[in-house]
Structure formats: structure tokens, C-alpha cells
Amino acid sequence: MRLRAYAKVNIWLKVWKKDYNSQYHLINSLVVKVKNLYDSITISKSNNDFDEISSNLKVLEKENFIFNVLDILRKHNITKNFYKVKLKKRIPLGAGLGGGTSDAITLAKYFLRKYKIIDSNINKEICKAVGFDSYFYFSDFESAIVTGYGEKVETFFKKFKVYKKHLILTGVNCNTKKVYQEFDLTPGENNSIYLNSLTTTCIQIYPKLSNFIDKGVMSGSGSTFIKKMFYDKYFNKDLKDYYIKNVKNYNKM
Length: 253
Known about the structure:
9 strands; 6-stranded mixed sheet; 2 domains; alpha+beta; globular; 3-stranded antiparallel sheet; 8 helices; Ribosomal Protein S5, domain 2
């Protein structure tokens, strides 16, 4: 079986610093899938008693959320088999495009649908193991407003078509955990002038990204930028009004 795991971008990403009662960040983000940027996944049963991943990026053969997903599926007797997974990566690592999460959830959805499993608790267990971007990928929405810690996903009134041509792939591998940790250490409230609250922090850690700040908007925790041509086409009055009312001037979730 061959599967496609699509990249996503954050058209905007508002992040609130963690408070003392939570280990996670509240967010408000418009998330959209990229139509023609995806990883390819091929699955076959293995005769071994362990899962194997082969990839054009060798680092993903040892550390990969796909292993976590397959373990959870066996735990719940959704499958008893072990698998060989071939992963052809096209989505860059550390690019703010959700590639690793997309791979894992695409595989999970394949098995859950194949065996007609509808169980929100299993979905939540997988999301907890993989990360909050998982909720968007489980939703099947092409574009969605994502709030809370990432677990609240609602379809968006305006549809977008984002293609690879709209992206600047900078080649910088950003560490998501490090970006969020440094963001929390930055003094003051979140009054970023950018559509992405993490922009200033990310550039401080990865100065090379400053070369792209005038060319577009950063996605996720970096390092991809969405070109200005996209915003010139889609960021019209309706969308600006929505952003100002529901995101920019809204200080608590």
C-alpha cells in the first residue's frame, strides 16, 4: 500500500507563553495543507518480530513517530503484525511543515480505516504520543482554525490552495522544542508585529532566517517562509478583519 503524507503551513500562528498551570502553549493558527508537497509511504508485512523503516534520510530509520503508532495499534489489537515501511522524504526536516507528524498520522489513519476502527480514545493516545499537530491531520480538513493547545480543530470558512511554489524552503533545520523554550524566556507579553509569534525568537536562534523576513511569513517554528505572493492573493479584507477580531487583538483563549 502506498500513501501520501502532506505538508502543512501556518498562515498565521499566535502563541501564548506557558502559564504555571500548564506545560503546553495555547495557540491560534490557520493551518492549510500544501497540495503538492508530500512524503511517500509504502507498507508491507514483515516476517521479523520488529518494525523496520527504510528512508532516503537515514536518521529517520531509527527515530520516527511511525514506530510509536505501530506500537499503539498492536497494543489495541488493531493489528498483530510487524511491518516494513519505506519512507521517501520530500518534506524537509525542521522546516515547520509538520512532515514527521503527517507521516505518522497518515499511517495511523490507514490502519484505522482499513479495520473500520472508530475510537476517539485511540486517536487521542496516538496524538499524545506524536504531538498536537496530529489533531489537524486526523481532521482531514484542507484548511482549519486550530486553537487550544492544538487539539481544537474547526474547518475554516475560506478555502485556500497552497502549493510548493508559494514556499521558501530555507534549508535551515529548526529545533521546535528549543524555539518554544527560548520564546518563553523572552521578556514581556506576546505583542509580535509578525503573523507568526515565534518569528523573532526563531531568527535570534537561527540568524540566517533574517534573510527571508522581508520575503514572506514564517510557518510553524521555522524554517519555511510562505511567500508574499500568497498573502497578496488571499489576505483580503474578509480575512484581515477575521484575523484582527479573532486573533491579533484577542489576548486570552
